[in-house]
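User: two proteins, same treatment. go.

Assistant:
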Amino acid sequence: MEPITSTTILFSLFFLFIVATLLTTLALKKKKDLLMQKLMDANDFFDQIREELKELQEKHEKDKQFHKRLSVAELTTHLQKPRLSAQTSPVHTSTPEKYRLVYTLTRKNMHIDEIASFLSISIQEAQQLVTLSKLVQ
């Protein structure tokens, strides 16, 4: 048997160092691959959450618009109730002349501009009166 020389020891240590480095490199590569997969999964998850958030924000905006319109409609209805009850009240059974004229003129297919001019009222008021006369029908 040959005696162990310093060259053999150095070669063995160098070989062990190379093997240890190679094993460490493989372990780190595997860890890096696992971390990259986790990162990609997290990115996919955040993209999904971002899309859900966008959908919820759009739905919330639509709900806000709906509630705003509903509030306006409730206010309009609340403001019109006294006028409607006054129109249907048995105490005031006679219809004012202006309303009867508008009703008659609309039945004759007269345009709103002509009704406004004929009654000397604004076009907006004529439009409201025509709308009210259609409600009566």
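Protein 2:
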Amino acid sequence: MDWPLRMRNLFFVIFILTLVYESHAFKRAKLKLGKVEIKIDVAKKTKDLQKGMMFKTSWGDIEGMLFVFPKEGFRSFWMKNTFLPLSIGFFDKKKVLLEVYDLKESKSMTQKNFDSVKSKTRAKYVLEVPKGWFKENNVQIGDAFKFID
């Protein structure tokens, strides 16, 4: 193996380790949606909003990730380097569920085509949960969430 290839591999390993190290930097919270309480990670910082569930291979001790944006807007999400199948719910500023989509996981980091979704309505909050979670828990469009202690 030549030197440039070794350096590229080393930088790749450092990049992945940095992502893993920072993966537990999210704030933890509980929320109630419909009749269900779930433990979530909360993403508010720009870097957390950009990373989300990327590179994770299990949910660990959380059941979802809530993205909190500064204001309502049309939201786009993609499954690049997201190795868990997801359901994504878009919520307005009153925390009311507006839309739900199911997305397929990425199969590898070199995958070129992957699922993506753009909200049809303006959303302030986006909740990622395991694929099928909304249906399995009978959570409907129009249900609202609230934070609990």
